[in-house]
Design brief:
The structure is a homodimer. In chain A, helix 1 packs across helix 10 and helix 3 packs across helix 5. Chain A is 31% helix and 18% strand. The first copy, chain A, has a 7-stranded parallel beta sheet. In chain A, strands 2-1-3-4-5 form a 5-stranded parallel beta sheet, covered by helices on one side. By secondary structure, chain A is an alpha/beta fold. Chain A is elongated, with a radius of gyration of 21 Å.
């Protein structure tokens, strides 16, 4: 039996993952990169990082899939993915911490009106604006998984008035949470800063659209750190034009890299980040993947198994 | 006996303070604004907000001075200020909270490399940079009073590696602190982001100068939220030109408003804020001042008395 490392990786990325994995896996494990020669029948574990659609269905004896990313929406969207093979996603405390720092940075950037002040600087304008305290600022958190839950708690510890929403019921210590599509509007109505950390599923695709923007109070801001497909880009541009949405911070896009002609680049009220919210840390990812493989080999249940019906 | 409200205030600001103060002070208190008719001999308490130099020495029966600001450096720099009259400064938990939010916003702005990404956006450049975690980022906090101590703790709770420095010994729960001029360099040597919240005293005037910048590691950033006089502006411009200092966030300046021709306005690696870190909240300031006046009238010691020798 062998492990196959397969994904949207360059040769040097394969080498770098292989080197790290070899240091963490027992010497008895055989590891192949997908551009090497291997026997399909031999592979019982796939370590994946955006594998080509159709590739995993070619492995007749596959028994476990470990993702090297937290998001598995692209993996699950492959209709040929074997339905009976368990999939684990990567939940790395370092990645969670990076996302928490990113969310708090962007929320404070908007809360402290930094975009306005930087705009004023460009015209040497000395003008002070009333500054509310965090406790006077309602932040709405969409998505209360590992990332959204931890980010909501960090914002709350800093003093923000945080309300969380998720499709299914979730409890997050110290945070007021609501769930279900019916109650989304009651979260949006008072939200000044909306953070999206939802998983991408058929239900959440395009959730950041005209109808949602119009329930937010006039002047609200949005921060999208999840997936480009959550956002209907044209609707955001319209809502920015009317001033209903005052600013958007976008880290993810439908097409990445964001094409050079895209209107977001030059929009004065859009801050563009090149998908840098929380990158996989190869060292800790390798260790976590190796631990999960060891659990699988020992007959234990791997951690962070994906629920295929939910999509995460 | 009467209270005099005196400062660098417009008529409408006087009226606004008077209205708030009247609601908080007992009906027996007589309150005058300095542009009204009053008997100098009657005044035993001065409520001050940058009073003109020499004005307080004209009040022969003055027994207590309550500042409406936290910083009393301008007040104490008046050589005619009566030496035997106690001075209290304003320590407002809301102002402390505002400063904490401001410090965390600016440190995260630098930590998350937001200036670089906004610069890349202006040329539609999609480029990712290695992002350390907060625990891998050393923040040096100069000044460990109410504001610096609280800000250091908030940064530490978010994960930053914080070291605090103050002229006199200070303990801040959970924070490693050093004191004395001799040990300043050992704080600076490993500091990537330096925050200044020192009081302005003869010893700290011009502390942010060439000699200090050169002890910081190459590429360090500075955040000045205290007083413009802490910074030697020409030295900062030189250190930015060589790249030794990579970015500066400045909220305070030697001349405010910052003159339109000042090179900071257009400097790509200086972020200019118009003295907005933490404004006095008139409602809570009024209540705190009224409480301190009540304490003084009842023969109790007012809180937050200034130590004239230390200067804060």
């Amino acid at each position: 039996v062998s492990i196959l490392l397969i994904g949207d990786l360059t040769r040097s990325e394969y080498e770098s993952w292989r080197e790290r994995l070899s240091a963490c896996l027992p010497a008895s494990e055989k590891l192949f990169a997908s551009d090497e020669d291997y026997e399909r029948d031999d592979i019982d574990i796939a370590l994946v990082a955006n594998p080509p659609a159709g590739s995993l269905s070619q492995l007749p004896n596959l028994r476990f899939i470990q993702s090297l990313w937290a998001g598995v929406d692209r993996l699950l969207s492959d209709p040929t993915l074997p339905t009976d093979v368990p999939v684990s996603r990567l939940v790395d405390p370092n990645l969670t911490q990076a996302m928490v720092e990113c969310v708090v940075a962007h929320v404070l950037f908007l809360h402290r009106q930094i975009p306005q002040y930087l705009g004023q600087q460009s015209s040497a304008e000395w003008k002070q604006w009333t500054q509310p305290l965090a406790m006077q600022r309602r932040v709405g958190m969409l998505g209360l998984g590992q990332l959204g839950g931890a980010a909501a708690q960090a914002l709350s510890r800093l003093g923000f008035d945080v309300v969380g929403w998720s499709a299914a019921p979730r409890t997050v210590k110290g945070i007021r949470t609501l769930h279900s599509a019916e109650r989304l509007n009651s979260v949006l109505r008072d939200t000044e800063i909306l953070v999206n950390l939802l998983p991408l599923t058929p239900q959440t695709t395009g959730i950041l659209r005209k109808e949602l923007f119009h329930v937010l109070p006039r002047g609200a801001s949005i921060i999208n750190l999840a997936r480009g497909e959550h956002l209907v880009e044209e609707d955001l541009i319209d809502a920015l034009a009317t001033g209903h949405i005052s600013h958007a911070i976008l880290d993810v896009f439908r097409t990445e890299p964001l094409p050079p002609q895209h209107p977001f680049w030059s929009h004065p009220r859009v801050s563009v980040f090149p998908h840098v919210a929380a990158a996989t840390d190869p060292d800790s990812a390798t260790q976590l993947a190796a631990n999960n493989i060891a659990a699988f080999r020992a007959g234990r249940t791997p951690v962070f198994l994906v629920d295929r019906r939910k999509g995460y």
